Amino acid sequence: MRHLLALVILLAGAVNAGAQTQSAAPQPGQVLVSGTVPDEATKLAVLTRLRDIYGAAMVVDQISIGQVATPANWNSYVEKLITPDLKSISRGQLKIDGSTVSIKGEVGSEATRQKIGAGVTASLNPTYTVNNTLRVSAADQSVLDTTLANRIVEFESGKAELTQTGRAILDEMAAAMKKLNDRKIDVIGHTDSQGNKTTNQNLSQARADAVKAYLIGAGIKGELLSASGQGADRPVASNDSSDGRARNRRIEFRMAQ
């Protein structure tokens, strides 16, 4: 007997790599987890880790329980692999097949690619094989990054209402997106760590939705945009200073394909 567990992360049109047939595609921002585990406790541990990171509503459970063989301490190694770093991956998949771990997808920078790969390897003992095929997003991503130019899309304090400055930046982003030949783009909202986690999650989603609506109004096709909120889970600066918190309250634009 052997074990096969596949996690499909933030993919539209994803395929369930842990089964014989295709799965329904998760919606943007969702995580689809499938495969066979030996018992209910293992299934619950995997789902709990994912729900803690992505939110319960964003995890699609397609795990089955069956008579499968697993390496020693396999359960604990799987839990160590499910970390917030996975949220840096778009169009990605983490596949754990016995003692073979494969990770693929797109990340925003070479530093992120190396960090995630090193983290996976460090979580496992030497008997595991790691196949890291993460890649840095291509040139179209740089169009978005250059246009945004590290600026923050501003909102009214504590609200999902864009300021005049925020709208001006989005006008520039819309112009840039029109040059990308109908490429799909993920609009991702982030907050700082102050306040309630659920409130931050909801605010980040509402702000991402507001940006999507504005871009549609600026002429971008709605089917090319997805909006998701990730709360305070992916800071780019320390939340210990006002400047750091301001940098963390941001909208991110990522190429979806």
Automatic annotation (TrEMBL):
A Pfam family the protein falls into: OmpA
Source taxonomy lineage?
A: Bacteria, Pseudomonadati, Pseudomonadota, Betaproteobacteria, Burkholderiales
Region: Disordered, residue numbers: 228-257
Tell me which residues make up the OmpA-like domain: 142-257
Give UniProt keywords alphabetically: Cell outer membrane, Membrane, Signal
- Family annotation (PROSITE patterns): OMPA_2
Q: What is this protein called?
A: OmpA family protein
Where does this one sit in the cell?
Cell outer membrane
| Basic and acidic residues bias (residue ranges) | 242-257
Give the range the annotation lists for the signal sequence. 1-19
InterPro entries from the xrefs? Bact_OuterMem_StrucFunc, OMP_bac, OmpA-like, OmpA-like_sf
